[in-house]
Amino acid sequence: MSTIVIDNLQTHFETPAGVIRAVDGVSFSVERGEILGLVGESGSGKSITGFSIIGLVDPPGRVAGGRILFQGEDLVGRSESEMRALRGKKIAMIFQDPMMTLNPVLSIETQMVEAVRAHDNVPKLEARRRAVEALGLVGIPSPDERLSAYPHQFSGGMRQRVAIAIALLHRPDLIIADEPTTALDVTIQSQILFEIQKVSRDFGMSLIWISHDLGVVAGLAHNIAVMYAGRIVEAGPVDTVLDHPVHPYTVGLLRSIPANLRRGEALEAIPGMAPSPLRRPSGCPFRLRCFAATATCETEPVDARIGEHSWRCFHPQNEARP
Length: 322
Fold this sequence. Notes:
Blueprint: E1 4-15, E2 18-30, E3 35-39, H1 46-54, E4 61-70, E5 73-74, H2 80-86, E6 91-94, H3 108-117, H4 124-137, H5 143-146, H6 156-168, E7 174-178, H7 186-203, E8 206-211, H8 214-220, E9 223-228, E10 231-237, H9 238-243, H10 248-255, E11 303-306, E12 309-312
Parallel strand pairs: 3-8, 3-9, 6-7, 7-8
Antiparallel strand pairs: 1-2, 1-4, 4-5, 9-10, 10-12, 11-12
Helix pairs in contact: 3-4, 4-6
């Protein structure tokens, strides 16, 4: 059984100007121990997808349709108390800014011990032992001593490690990581990615890694889903999608990475901007920026698939290379 199956998820925001379809019919699944990279430009719906899964979409947002099957049970429509029992225990989230997780006026020990005892009725000494163990798993030196520190006494990279450690306290079945290494330097980023892969492998945790960085996802994930304007436009095994991109949007993302260019070659950016969610064009939402668009693209594209590789496009770039 898959750890999680997302089936036609729709998350809408009711505004005076109209309905924003932030997530517009997204479907994917993540197996036990698998890492899925969810990628795309800012505003593509990646983070809202993650927030929808864990039940953190605030009004006026709401899950308007679809199913979120976690270990076979649908989470859509669950009460706040039911979702609170799942968060941290069975499903955990790592935020981009660790200070969204950490309280600046409480010691790390207080925060981690309370996180353990919120779900497990264990003595404080046992909760502290689990906190020390979790800090050690993410590579924090002298974890027993660092428990007494406060968030401001840690560097940005160390704070993020603490946030990851809190997510690991209950060995959740699913972790949703919302660009947790974006603000970190390359060396620290590499260390944290190594630790994440290790704990996912060692404990069989499933992971949804939300990012705009294709380089990070290439080295981390098993599968990848490329989002644009609230929809998944291409998905499949990470090597297949990145080595043989089919959707023009994926091709454009890869062509805009400097590492893929020869020295002195001009960077090829995707023209224009993503459409406003209030004024999306008819048919394929990428057609106004697409080098392969034709009049056919004014109608809604259908899913196409070869094996595990799928896409939504009338003009697949089968021979395209970044």
